[in-house]
Amino acid sequence: MKNGSVPTIKDVALRAGVSVGTASHVLNNTAVVSKARHDLVVKAAAELNYRPNQLARSLRQSKTNVVGLCIPMISSAYFASLIEALDELSISQGHQVMQVLSGGSPQQELDRVESLISRRVDGIVLMPTTDPTRTLDLIARHHVPAVIVDRIQHEERFDLVLLDHQRAMREVVEHLRLLGHERLLFVVRNPNLITTRLRIDTLRSMVTESAGRLTAQVIGTPNEAQDLQDQLKGLLWRDDAPTAIITSNSINTLWVLRYLQSWNIRIPHDVSLVAFDELPWGELVSPPLTVVRQPTADVAATAWQLLMERMETPTAPKRREMLQNHLVVRASTSPPISSR
Amino acid sequence: MKNGSVPTIKDVALRAGVSVGTASHVLNNTAVVSKARHDLVVKAAAELNYRPNQLARSLRQSKTNVVGLCIPMISSAYFASLIEALDELSISQGHQVMQVLSGGSPQQELDRVESLISRRVDGIVLMPTTDPTRTLDLIARHHVPAVIVDRIQHEERFDLVLLDHQRAMREVVEHLRLLGHERLLFVVRNPNLITTRLRIDTLRSMVTESAGRLTAQVIGTPNEAQDLQDQLKGLLWRDDAPTAIITSNSINTLWVLRYLQSWNIRIPHDVSLVAFDELPWGELVSPPLTVVRQPTADVAATAWQLLMERMETPTAPKRREMLQNHLVVRASTSPPISSR
DNA sequence: CTGAAAGCGCTTACAG
DNA sequence: CTGAAAGCGCTTACAG
Q1: C-alpha torsion sign, points A18, A23, A26, A32
Q2: How far apart are CA A304 and CA A161, in angstroms?
Q3: What is the CATH number of the domain that holds A283?
């Protein structure tokens, strides 16, 4: 061992007076070695403070024990708890998560996933951007085991973890209708997102089914809070104003809440509110919000399991797992004024 | 190339009709190669969809272009934005962050950092647990460039990024005193944390300096919200109850807010509140809170810079960078009732 | 039970 | 400008 540099298995073998192969075998418990030599190797390794170079192992074994995770961002409670859950699962199984951020940009997603592939991750968990075509092609071309989480409905090449957005929206509307609401407003952020589209479709078909007893409007807030405020102003001060608002994500919820607050419109007295996604600190908002909660732990566990099985059996038929997210009824929904 | 397997540089060279060395040179732009061969190699690489195996590169070059980041957790706005900032910095400089979670446990911290070292990260950014001794020893023994962020005051072996907790606390107390507050309550979570200790010390010495004009109590909430509530109950309903509360972190702030809310104690009318750490969704809390904001972006940028310079010049003298976190005055602090 | 040797996929002096 | 070859630190048949 050159002085001051990191000890290798060669140094261990030398000090123990055995061959490199033998040293490797005792260190990995991969063959029976005489007790005498065994102890010699263990002792030498300890004295030298030897840690195997995982790069070399990975290269030799064509297995890194690293799985890649690509998500849009991290500063959102949903993603944060997903990472934590996945991290714990991976560690407990001797793996390590290497996470990259797409920032929601298809190009960045492609670049980051490419970097994961270059680092030879054993598998990939992807929460796709709006247009992941090239990323998916790349992953498929390299035959990397992968599972796609949500946002994509049909994709023959990969295992899928899906959330049942339609059923969830149905549950929301049902809840509001039972309370007596007839005019709904759905505030979305990006109408092009599959998730959002599914929710809108469900809402519309329920309106149709109701044969006139239910009406619904959908407004988008592509850019700024200001846009939203203007649109809300045009809607909420009319005789036929909606009596219940549904928001499609946390950001929207925040904006709507602030708008209502600033105009002193009380929840649920003046208008009911249902939010998709649990809010961090949601307990502090008064009143506590009725929300559709994402089953984060389920999503992580399912994705992990699918990935492990895929790595095990690359040729097995692809699978789709549908997960349920549930309505949590709190104080922000109540019967509308008209029916009280 | 065996059918179906990942193409290597050997496959590229073969297809281009050049030696492996030459292929490597054009791919890395590391030597002048005739235009003809150059184009041949580029074409072959594109056709084969070749991506260099970073494991092999790293092994050969003894450089992974990966830096390790060890933090307690991720589902806290402070850590989340730290990760995002560090991630962006690293990518822009051709590196990749590999992040591990200590969960606040010294043992887990040791294990995870050991795994980073086994993977031969080029450097480590560590936000230490309460007792990082063995982790620090490990890092030092392996001569891995590292920078420690906050929570540690003196440590000769590493570069340090510090936050000026004493000055921040001084600023808080000064603000409250100028408003007319004389009886303060400091609610902490873990009194053993260096950060907390520094704040408590500063508070106490300011009380001493005030020569009786200022009093302060400190209560800890080691375990449950219930503990805190009991302690608060014993303090807030007396004649000499504190007129201003300072909370040491977001969790505490949440608990205190809920307690005050449940007893209908109004902020800032009945009691003023200053919180360490900005809250996510803090804008929704009414009134908006006066907080001490952590300079996340600064912390990330400074840590990154120190690390890069350390990797560049391992023998340079160790450095300590002191960063400032500032008081953001909002509506949760006002003069106490008595002085109105 | 043990060791010598090939090989994982690269980079990089070294000759020519 | 180009190629043959050594070597990064491991694991793993293969002989003995």
Answers
A1: negative
A2: 10
A3: 3.40.50.2300
A35 and A176 inside one domain = no
Residue-number span of the structural domain to which A204 is assigned: 165-294+327-339
Please indicate whether, in this complex, the C-beta atoms of B75 and A77 are within 8 angstroms of each other.
yes
pTM above 0.85, yes or no: yes
A54 touches chain B (CB under 8 A): yes
Per-residue pLDDT of chain A (340 residues; tens, 9 = 90+): 555 578 999 999 999 999 999 999 999 999 999 999 999 999 999 999 999 999 999 999 999 999 999 999 998 888 999 999 999 999 999 999 999 999 999 999 999 999 999 999 999 999 999 999 999 999 999 999 999 999 988 899 999 999 999 999 999 999 999 999 999 999 998 887 888 999 999 999 999 999 999 999 999 876 666 788 888 988 988 889 999 999 998 878 888 988 898 888 999 999 999 999 888 777 677 788 999 999 999 999 999 999 999 999 999 999 999 999 999 999 999 999 876 5
Residue of A nearest to B251 (CA): A281
Structure-token match 């996510």, residue found = B280
Q: Is residue A243 part of a domain?
A: yes
What does the alpha-carbon distance between residue B31 and residue B18 come to, in Å, rounded to a whole number?
A: 14
Assess whether B75 and B127 both reside in one domain: yes
Distance CA B314, CA B246 (A): 42
Determine the Cα–Cα distance for residues A5 and A11; give it in Å rounded to an integer: 11
Q: Which of residues 129-158 of B touch A (CB under 8 A)?
A: 141-143
CB contact under 8 A, A254 and B281: yes
